[in-house]
Specification:
alpha/beta, 5-stranded parallel β-sheet, single chain, magnesium ion binding, 11 strands, putative 2-phosphosulfolactate phosphatase
Length: 236
């Protein structure tokens, strides 16, 4: 039987074997929520890069460029890290370069050895569940966390995925069990459950409560972003 595991932070990724695994990267607040939203709204591709410099270089080649550090937009770039920025007409058909504090770094770490890299958020939970059920590989949910530390919202998403897939996958390690049990505890009121978490407080100081509320909604989009080469595209 296939296995599902959870890595609570990219700093622990070296402890996991990725050779037979699909890695699902989750950065709920807000990178992977932006990626799912953008592709649902007609973005052609998203190229995640680890550094601001790489993102700038792609911007100079004509990409729309999104750069975020410490939850704020980096000066000189076209887009920030709010999902609502990916709902405008200017993104339709666009190739976007994106760098964020945690999410794109997690993708960069995973892509060297994983069989496939997919992107997960509550927004595309059902679509992702259906796709993973049809795959033959193990699954590792990589929580982007915050600067190497675990965070609540990504762990909750990992738990939601574990709960949905528990009949098709064995939850072998405690990371998966912890995430699943946490989700079961909080699933009836996710906004309330994360209300005093560190990243929610960080975002609220910036006045972006609407991003938090939006990103905790399940199954808004039937889209699964997958990494093809260096680009995230919608899996068809």
């Amino acid at each position: 039987m296939k296995q599902l595991d959870v890595c609570l932070t990219p700093d622990l990724l070296h402890l996991h074997k990725l050779e037979n695994s699909i890695v699902v990267v989750a950065d709920v607040f807000r990178a992977t929520s932006c990626m799912v939203t953008g592709l649902a709204y007609g973005v052609k591709s998203i190229t995640p890069v680890a550094t601001v410099e790489e993102c700038k270089a792609l911007q100079e080649k004509g990409y729309l460029a999104a750069a975020e550090r410490d939850a704020m937009k980096v000066e000189g770039f076209d887009l920030d890290n709010s999902p609502f920025s990916y709902m405008s007409e200017k993104v339709i058909g666009a190739h976007i370069a994106m760098t964020t504090t945690n999410g794109t770094l997690s993708i960069a770490k995973a892509k060297t050895t994983a069989v496939k890299v997919m992107v997960g958020a509550f927004l595309n939970l059902g679509a992702l569940v259906n796709q993973l059920r049809s795959e033959q590989y193990d699954v590792l949910v990589l929580c982007a966390g915050w600067k190497g530390r675990p965070n609540l919202e990504d762990t909750l998403f990992a738990g939601a995925l574990a709960e949905a897939l528990k009949d098709q996958f064995i939850l072998v390690e405690d990371g998966a069990l912890m995430a699943q049990r946490l989700y079961m505890q909080g699933r009836d009121n996710l906004p309330g459950f994360v209300a005093n978490s560190s990243h929610v407080r960080r975002l609220q100081r910036l006045g972006i409560q609407k991003d938090i509320t939006y990103s905790l909604q399940s199954d808004l989009y039937d889209v699964v972003p997958i990494l093809r080469g260096n680009q995230l595209v919608a899996l068809h």
